[in-house]
User: What shape does this take?
Amino acid sequence: METNRITNTEADVGELLKGAVQDLETLASQHMKLFKTEIKEETRKLAEGAISLAIGGAVLLVGGVILGITLALALLAIFPNLPWWVAFGIISILICGLGALALFLGQQRIATAPPIAEQTQEEIQEDVKWLKNPK
Assistant: This one.
């Protein structure tokens, strides 16, 4: 009789372990699906942003060249005795300074950007905490 009881207990423990393993497999599968979805969404957003940046950058480049020429010519009109290369040099230095400032600010923003797949990371951390202390 006692042997039957031990066998039943072992079967129950085996079923519990099997269920726990299946639950962990399901959980890992769900995390992978969430991770893939997040990566696809973030990649799509990055691609859209990159296209907008490329178009905006090209338009801004043409506009900046035309504005630089215009400002240099305006400087020559205001100061007629100024050599042309000085006028263009002054405007070029100002534009380069603004470009350097924009690069610096962009680098600051990139450095503080949140990590990729933040939601998946949070979910995994919660699961690890729960596995360590399942109350």
Remarks:
- The helical segments are 2-78, 84-111, 118-132.
- The chain has a mean pLDDT of 84.
- The first helix runs from residue 2 to 78.
